[in-house]
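Supplementary notes for students who missed Thursday's class. We covered one full example, reproduced here. Read the sequence, then the structure, then the short commentary at the end.
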Amino acid sequence: MTIDATSHTETSPRAADSGTHRPDASGRPTLLRLTLVELRKLADTRAGYWLLITIGLVAAIIVAVLLFTAPDPEQRFENFFALSQIPVGILLPILGILLVTSEFSQRTVLTTFALVPQRHRVVVAKLGAGVVAALISVAASLATAAVGTVIAGLAGDGGSWSTDGSAFVGAAVFQVVNVLLGIAFGLLLQSTPLAIVLSLVLPIAWSTLGGMIERLHGAAEWLDTGLTTAALVEPPNPGHLDGGQWARLGVSVAVWVLVPLLGGLIRTVRREVS
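Structure (token representation):
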């Protein structure tokens, strides 16, 4: 008796399509899959995990402080949301740095580049993961601001929900710029302590010099990220930037984010990993 073996060896279309995030036509993992892997790495490391928790707690603490100290008319959604962005924006560059430098400090970069030899794709995936993390932080701030607004409405005469979409766009741009600044410094320096210190000290030093030295006032308006990003989140009209403000924001981002990012990309692609 003859048995037709082809029925046992054929792969059904459903089985073939059952996997998710399959490699692309060249056999490489997709950028989506690489980005998800980078997000997983961020949450798996102890430092990254606790930093993510700290970011959420900081947003909640800011809302709690406003509930206890601000007058009732000031206890409104727009203020809760906008003011929680500033301390979160201080922590996000550190998160971006850890997203990059933890690879080098823990020697996992050897495995990463062995599995994905196209190093620029790893960098793009890290940038994507950083953007996603920044948007998640905005969502966390939005949630805590909503809770604070409800409590303010129940406890007193506050609780106004009036705001517009510009506040959300401004917050998203603000946090994305912050996390990309951290990634850029991390790629360029590839050392956690050095990148954290310089990413904090250099902008503050430039801001201080721009405020103290009269000849630098004009340059500071274009290169001080503290000034150029302030209108994105600060009340009373967060996110409402005119053409000149957007231009100054673009120049400061080019200097503090794009230039070190390009230098870090070149260094990462050319570096001998051992």
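Commentary. The CA atoms of residues 174 and 232 lie 6 Å apart. The chain has 13 helices and no strands. If anything here is unclear, bring it to office hours.
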